[in-house]
Design goal:
This protein is an alpha/beta fold and about 300 residues long. The protein contains eleven helices and twelve strands. The protein folds into two domains: about 160 residues, 3-Layer(aba) Sandwich (Rossmann fold), CATH 3.40.50; about 110 residues, Glycogen Phosphorylase B (Rossmann fold), CATH 3.40.50.
Length: about 300
């Protein structure tokens, strides 16, 4: 089967670039092609299915008025309509709703354009119980299900055999940045204890590049890693003693490599709604749902 996945990869965000690697590993018997919000001039004629996912692509941020349609939503709708027009199935896999910090209370209004498509999707697997609650409430369907994010299944070969932990890794985003007073407080403590610190950029260069530049200026004794791929980022985190992360996938890589981590209390929706009690291996449920649908 030829399946097109529509997510957020390809923009330099290491976490989002992990999804194609996981999907290819989990679905080796199928031919996979990957797309994002950069709309193609055309889609292959022989597609058998279109899947929206993975990542926080279920949003309508930037819509004016707020209940209108954002450019991002219109891009996602392009792919959904392509499936509908061709008469091929489409679904939502390992996705999450994504709201601006502390704006998730307005979900019913901001997600209004998504409602008819949530009602039509062949299957819906989401990455937090709260996302499932919202999907069920606004769509009226009870079959949306939760599994931890598919990126939890990413395990580069040989990573856990590296040896002793080396130091602290900081994954900047939001309040985790070189200007933040609490982060500076932590850095003074690490310096006093002689603990080496690495700044690892996992977000896109346009979003987080300035933080690495400023970290290098403010903390010249720290190491900055500004151009990692998913495997290099995972290895950096797995070899750490401790991680401070503002990035969602910095948290995921920490959990899967069993490295202690902290995040700020004021973080985006996806980090605040993460179910830390759910076994990370149960992320395989996304693909169990997809395989059952394909087999039918």
């Amino acid at each position: 089967m030829k399946i097109a996945f529509v997510g957020a990869s390809g923009y330099g965000n290491i976490g989002d670039d992990t999804y194609p690697l996981v999907f290819a590993q989990q679905l080796p018997e199928h031919e996979l092609v990957f797309y994002n919000s950069d709309l193609p001039s055309s889609l292959p004629d022989d597609l058998d299915m279109i899947v929206i996912g993975g990542g926080g692509v279920l949003h309508n941020a930037g819509a004016e008025p707020e209940e209108g349609e954002s450019p991002h939503f219109r891009c996602m709708r392009f792919y959904i309509h392509a499936a509908i027009e061709r008469g091929i199935p489409w679904g939502i896999l390992s996705c999450g709703f994504q709201f601006e910090v502390q704006r998730d209370s307005a979900y019913a209004r901001s997600l209004k354009p998504w409602v008819p498509y949530l009602q039509q999707a062949a299957f819906i697997t989401l990455r937090s119980p709260e996302c499932v609650r919202i999907a069920r409430e606004i769509s009226g369907r009870a079959d949306a299900v939760f599994f931890p994010d598919a990126a939890y299944l990413y395990h580069p070969a040989g990573v856990l055999q590296q040896g002793l932990a080396e130091g602290v890794t900081i994954v900047p985003a939001g309040l985790v940045n070189p200007r933040n007073a609490l982060i500076n407080h932590y850095l003074r403590q690490f310096a006093a204890s002689g603990v080496p610190v690495s700044w690892l950029r996992m977000g896109a260069l346009v979003d987080d590049g300035w933080m690495l530049e400023e970290a290098a200026q403010r903390f010249p004794d720290s190491k900055t890693i500004n151009a990692a791929d998913p495997e290099a980022a995972y290895r950096c985190i797995a070899s750490s003693r401790f991680v401070i992360t503002g990035r969602y996938h910095g948290m995921i890589f920490s959990r899967t490599s069993r490295v202690p981590f902290i995040t700020p209390t004021e973080v985006p929706y996806k980090l605040r709604q993460e179910d830390y009690a759910a076994p990370t291996a149960s992320a395989a449920g996304h693909f169990e749902v997809l395989r059952r649908f394909i087999e039918r």
